[in-house]
Amino acid sequence: MSADAKYRLVFVDRLLATLVRLRHGGTHDVLACWFGADRSSVTRAIGEVRLLLAERGCTVSPDVRLRSLAEVVDHLGTSGTTGIVDGTEIRVRRLAGGRKDRNTFISGKNKQNAVKSMAVTDGEGRVLWCSPTRPASCADITPVRQLGLVKLVADGPAVEILADADYQGLGAQTGGRVVTPPHRKFKKNAPDWYEEMHERQRKAHSLRRIRVEHGIAHLKNWRALACHLGQREDMSDTVQAMLACCPTSRPRT
User: What burial letters (b/e) apply to 131-155, b meaning 16+ CB within 10 Å?
Assistant: First the structure.
């Protein structure tokens, strides 16, 4: 094999192979036959291009590209747009038996092996950023605390971020800038008028934040996020790479 064998695939073909892999889940063997290259060359090309795409960030407009949570908060404040935050899980392969950390990837909600990421969208459901993935056993609020969202929102520009009940308590920590569903005051024997009011407020909040579900569903049209069969260590780069490739148009509702 010659010294330049890794470059037998021109860059356009390497990019196309990576996009087909991410979008449709084509195997490396199939892609190798398609491009007339060795399987190892396709595997190497996908690994390299995926990292390049992950570094690009999410392109909101020709002159705005978001690569970090701090840039997302600044963009929401500058544009006066409401943000919506929610956690999403991506199924991954089960860890080999005997590993001590095997149970850390088991989701307490869906009882399956998965990793979790925090997605941030605007009020229209366009995905602006996704956090690095973590084992699914962690709570939805854990990435928020570790990434410093509370400090970014409290010390940054005036911005409104909608969240579900899993992020309860962030409103008090951010001066009301993170809006969560109304807290239930009566646990037992609540008056009828309170039940009606609470249900009305809860539905109003749910209708405002439902766009984040549409944005996540739009992102999961990519086969690699429907069920990831590769290495779990590559999942964060895979999510970021797909953010760089997804169109910024409003997802279908």
Answer: bebbbbbbebbebbeebebbebbee
One domain for residues 47 and 76: no
The model's pTM is: 0.85
Largest CA distance in the chain: 80
Alpha helix segments (H runs only) across 128-191: 141-147, 149-155, 170-173
* Domain enclosing residue 18, as ranges: 1-54
Instruction: Tell me the pairing of strands 83-91 and 161-162.
Output: parallel
Domain count across the chain: 2
> What tens digit of pLDDT does each residue of 2-41 get?
445 555 789 999 999 999 999 888 889 999 999 989 999 9
Angle, alpha carbons 79-214-206 (nearest 5°): 80
Strand blocks (E) in the chain: 58-61, 64-66, 83-91, 114-122, 127-130, 134-135, 161-162, 178-179
pLDDT tens digit sequence for 200-230: 988 999 999 999 999 998 888 888 887 776 7
Mark whether 69 and 50 lie in a shared domain. no
